[in-house]
Amino acid sequence: MLKEISLGLATALMIFAFVAGYDILPLVVLGLAGGALYFIADTKGLLKNFDIGTSNSSAAKITFEDIGGQDTAVKELRECLDFINYEDRVKKLGIRPLKGILLTGPPGTGKTLLAKAAASYTDSVFLACSGSEFVQIYAGAGAQRVRKLFSSAREKAKKKNKSSAIIFVDEVEVLGARRGQNSNHMEYDQTLNELLVQMDGLKVDDSVRILVIAATNRADMLDPALMRPGRFDRQVKVDLPDRQGRYEILKIHARNKPLAGEVDLNVIAKETFGFSGAHLESLTNEAAILAMRENCDQIYYRHLHEAIDKVIMGEKMEKRPGKEELYRVAVHETGHALASEMVRPGSVSALTVTPRGGALGYMRQHHEEDHYLYTREHLENQIAVMLAGAVAEEMVMGNRSTGAANDFEKAFQTAEKIIRSGLSDLGIVSWDSLSQEQKYNEIKNILDNQEKKAAEHLNKMRLVIDDTVNKLLEQEKVTGEEFRMIIKKNIA
Ligand code: ATP
Question: What residues flank ligand 1, with Cβ below 6 Å?
Answer without folding.
Answer: 67-70, 107-113, 170, 215, 217, 249, 252, 277-278, 281
